[in-house]
Amino acid sequence: MRKWIIVVVLAGVAGVGAFLWFGSEPAPRAAVLRAEVGTAHYAPIATRALDPQPLTVAEMFPGPSASAGTTSLALRTTETLTDCAEAVWGSAEDALDGCTQVLRARYETEDGAVSGQFLIFNLADSAAADRLVAALKGGGFVRPAPDTPDGFDGSRSWAQVRGLGHYVTVSWVAPVVRGSRVDLTYPQVAMDGLGLVIQRRLVR
Length: 204
Known about the structure:
Elements: H1 2-22, E1 32-36, H2 57-60, E2 65-68, E3 71-81, E4 88-90, E5 101-109, E6 114-122, H3 126-137, E7 140-142, E8 158-164, E9 167-175, H4 185-193
Parallel strand pairs: 1-8
Antiparallel strand pairs: 2-3, 3-5, 4-7, 5-6, 6-9, 8-9
C-alpha cells in the first residue's frame, strides 16, 4: 500500500512539473515583426575594428522623448547590459557573436496607453548582426525591460529589427491595456527612429 502511495505522489509531482514546464506562458514576442539585414550603406561601421568606440546612453538617448507625427513617447528608463544574453531568449541567445553591450530604453505615451522599448546590440561585425536579425525573426526575441507595465500586450505588439553595420536595433511597441483599440503606427515610427543616431558614426 505504501508503495502505491509513493508512486501516486511521484506521479503527481511529475505532473505539476510538466505543467510548469509545458503549460507556462511563452515569452512574449511581437505579433507583427519586420526585419531587415544590413546594407552596403553601413560599410564604414561594418566591423567594431572600424568603429571601436562603445555606445553610451547619452549618445543613443539624448532627449527626454521620441516623437513621430502627433505622437510623443516620454523616456522612462535606460540601462546598459554587458551580458547580452540577459536581453534575449530562444535562438537569439546563440546569435550573439562578439556582443559586448546592449543599450535598452523604455518609453511610454503621456496617457500610458502605449509602452515602447528600444534596444541596440553592439556585435563584432555585420555578419554577426545579420545572424542576430535572423534569430530574432525566427525562434527567439528580446525580453521585455524589467519595468515594463504588466498590461504590455505582446499579442498585439509591433516590432522592427534592423541590421546597421555591426549593430542591431530592435524597436517594440504595444498597447498597455489589453483589448484597447490603439493605433501603433506613430509609436512604432518614433521608436524605430531612435536608430537614426547611428548615422552619425558613418562620418566619424
